[in-house]
Specification:
This protein has 143 residues and is mainly β. 8% of the residues lie in helices and 58% in strands. Strands 1-2-3-4-5-6 form a six-stranded antiparallel beta sheet, with no helix packed on it. Strand 4 and strand 5 (110-120) form a beta hairpin. The longest helix is centred in the N-terminal third of the chain and has 11 residues, at 3-13. The chain is extended, with a radius of gyration of 18 Å. The two termini are 34 Å apart.
Amino acid sequence: MSSMVKLALALVMAPAVAMAEHQHGMVAGGAEEPGSSFAAGISLVAATYDTMEYGGEYQGIVPAARWSRGRFAAAASFGMYRLEKNGLRRYGAGDAMVHGQATIVRGHGLEGGVALAVSAPTGDRQEGRGMGHPMAMPAAYGR
């Protein structure tokens, strides 16, 4: 087995502390009609974890809203979590997320564009409910 494969396996299989840090910047198709569209939804998340130092579980409810018009879309989400770590329960908000998207190419069954998601450190990093710093996550997409 090559050293690169061993390194990749080690990184994928390395234990990590679970934190309520879901990323909700989603790529979605723009509206086909010239008018605007609006959508709202709620995601439910849950997980358990067990590492050498920590064991527990978390649940979250993440409301989100999305607006689109033609080739442009914007979305926002803000999660609330219940996190249990080694028997200690904590409740509170996670990081707030906003997302913008622009479709650049559309036609003949193809679509592509750019997106940018930005998070604000509204969650408490010490309690495992946030990153502790703002994040910008640029992306390009195609389908």
